[in-house]
Amino acid sequence: MKDGAVADRDNLIDSFLSAHGWDGARRNPLSGDASFRRYERLTLGRRKAMLMDAPPPRENVDAWVAVARHLKSLGFSAPDILAKDKKNGFLIIEDLGDETFTRLLEDAKDGGDDATEAGLYSLAVDVLVELHAIAPEGALPAWLEDYDDAKLLEEALLLTDWTWPAIFGTAPADDVREAYGDAWLQSFAVLSRQPRTLVLRDYHVDNLMVLNGRQGIARCGLLDFQDAVRGPAAYDLMSLLEDARRDIPAALKDAMLARYYDGAGDLDHDDFEAAFAVLAAQRHAKVIGIFTRLCRRDAKPAYLAHIPRVWRLLESALAHPALAPVAAWFDAHFPTQKRGVPPNLEGAA
Fold first, then answer.
1. Which of 108, 163, 179, 211 lies at a CB distance of 3.0 to 4.6 Å from 292, suitable for a disulfide?
2. Residue 51 is inside which H or E element, if any?
3. DSSP label at 80?
4. Tally of helices (H runs) and strands (E runs) in the chain
5. pLDDT digits over 115-154, tens only?
6. Which helix (DSSP H) or strand (DSSP E) does residue 301 occupy?
7. Which residues contact 140 (CB under 8 A, 6 or more apart)?
8. CA-to-CA distance for 326 and 190, rounded, in angstroms?
9. pLDDT digits (tens, 9 = 90+) for 155-212
10. How far apart, in Å, are the Cα atoms of 164 and each of 1, 117, 300, 333, 334?
């Protein structure tokens, strides 16, 4: 039996669908993700669409709509918005199909098709080359937030605020947490040398699709971009090539970096690689904290399985000289044997 809040929300969805021509549509829920959003595929005769249920105040459909429309104006394949209910957090959007990069990569793996992996990643890199070639006045609308040091640090602190207590049993001492923040701020200095562009924030294979029948970069469907910001150009490429949820062969990563460099033209490779490493370490620290929080706060333990991979990626990034202050903090305060799934959460996975 549904509780009252769930039943009330179902009634709101029924009213929303009815008001926009989808009364009686078949609704098939899709698998969830780490957010509070959920999706259903709508089918009514030959018509198809997607329902996004993004309950406020945890989710913001306005942000999703604004970024989707901006991406479309730049020539990229974000879904069309068919109907919106801001107050209740509902959207009806274009159904881009089922061919996510993740699904295609799994199919290719089963069939031993390495060419599919290279082709998909090449398409994703080409989208970034095209996006980063757009002049800032076109790529960066005034309403975008800055991905500044304060925001980057706030995210990196998720590791000390969630994973540290789960591993050590108590919050870090104030001076330890402060030293962690100071170390990150020192390393963020290299980011000031990077051009600012539109950063989609979650640019990886789970959020990319192949759209057959479209050509060029339009073949790549884009999802989960509502957190877009104005930030360093290296971020989305890093997010693609240092994926928390799948292992990426070193040869493929090197080839995709070379492809990006070829397309980006005049780019200082040393500065870019330093920014890539710093942003990678920041994202991995954030993700370890988020995956811990998903288990402890949101009862979503499945993400714990990825934490060992993310620790490996973090340790690899920390080897870059630009991250010497952060690496020194980890050496002093976070022993190697503690860098894993929090022991009191392992049984939840």
1. 163
2. strand 47-53
3. P
4. 13, 9
5. 799 999 999 999 999 999 999 999 999 999 999 999 999 9
6. none
7. 196, 197, 198, 230
8. 13
9. 999 999 999 999 999 999 999 999 999 999 999 999 999 999 999 999 999 999 999 9
10. 38, 36, 18, 10, 9
Residue with tokens 């202050």: 325
Burial of 63 (0-12, 13-18, 19+ CB in 10 A): middle
Q: What angle do CA 345, 240, 105 make, to 5 degrees?
A: 85
pTM: 0.93
pLDDT band at 37 (very low <50, low <70, confident <90, very high): confident
User: Phi and psi of 69, rounded to 5°?
Assistant: -65, -35
Paired residues of 92 in beta bridges:
51, 83
Cα–Cα dist 183/325, whole Å: 5
Burial (CB count <10 Å: 0-12, 13-18, 19+), residue 11: exposed
In angstroms, the CA 31 to CA 160 distance is: 30
Residue 184, token pair as written in the block = 């990150």
